[in-house]
Amino acid sequence: MQPYSQIDADASFTMAFQATGMNWAKYIVALGAIKGMTTVLLANLIAQARYFTHIGRTHMAPPILASIHPKTGTPVNATVIMTVANSLVALFTSLDVLANLLSISTLFIFSLVSLALIVRRYYVTGETSTSDRNKLIVFLTLIVGSSIATAVYWVLSQGWIGYIVTGVIWFAATLGLQLTLKQAKKPKLWGVPLVPWLPSASIAFNVFILGSIDVPSFIRFAIWTLVLLVYYIFVALHASYDAARETDRVEAQASQASQATNMEAGTS
């Protein structure tokens, strides 16, 4: 419909239809785009509110978020608070900043999940020997390190020699993980196939894509992560522990009361 050099990055299909004289089609495309974005936003708000409802029940977030409306059975407080918070962030923050932060968070989580999968398959507390544990640490360090080196080398654009070196290190570390270590825990029904190759490749690709994001975005991500860690260590962790201890105390009292009632019923 259009040469790639003339494509509008902000509204590619809409402007392409307009350029070809199909003005009626651009309105259909625009309406579909608005409908799709609205649906995604509403779905995310509903899901996010329920996440924070559960977090509020553990007291890691303010308990007001855990309040459920007695008639509708929905987390009204969490929905309203998260909607207002998201709206304020979107209103005062550039779209590029939000997009990069979301990309870093998603790729970072994907990498951690892949790393955790390898650890879960090859390490079991009390069963895995010290030598196997040390091998696992070395291999994982090489996998992550070679992935980071590949991303850095791509940013520097210093030719193809570095890719060969980092690729060989990644391949050797993954192969060594497969050949020298036995999986300590295998799923009974279904599990991720091609372990350790699939999660190792996931780490490599995710880290490589992270290398394409600008430095200021990483600084923002580091600051936000630090703020959340400080909140978790000094507030949320203690609040959740106190809430769990209070729950155990209430359950113990209820159990004692039930036993006392049963004993009285038996004696009578």
TrEMBL record:
Keyword set, alphabetical order: Membrane, Transmembrane, Transmembrane helix
Occurrences of domain Cationic amino acid transporter C-terminal (ranges): 190-240
MF GO annotations: L-glutamate transmembrane transporter activity; L-lysine transmembrane transporter activity
InterPro entries to which the protein is assigned, alphabetical: CAT_C
Segments traversing the membrane: 24-47, 101-124, 136-154, 160-177, 189-209, 221-241
First and last residue of the signal peptide: none
Short name of one Pfam family: AA_permease_C
Gene3D superfamilies linked: Amino acid/polyamine transporter I (1.20.1740.10)
GO cellular component, one term: plasma membrane
Annotated coiled-coil segments of the chain: none
Family: Belongs to the amino acid-polyamine-organocation (APC) superfamily. Cationic amino acid transporter (CAT) (TC 2.A.3.3) family.
Protein name: Cationic amino acid transporter 1
Organism: Prunus yedoensis var. nudiflora
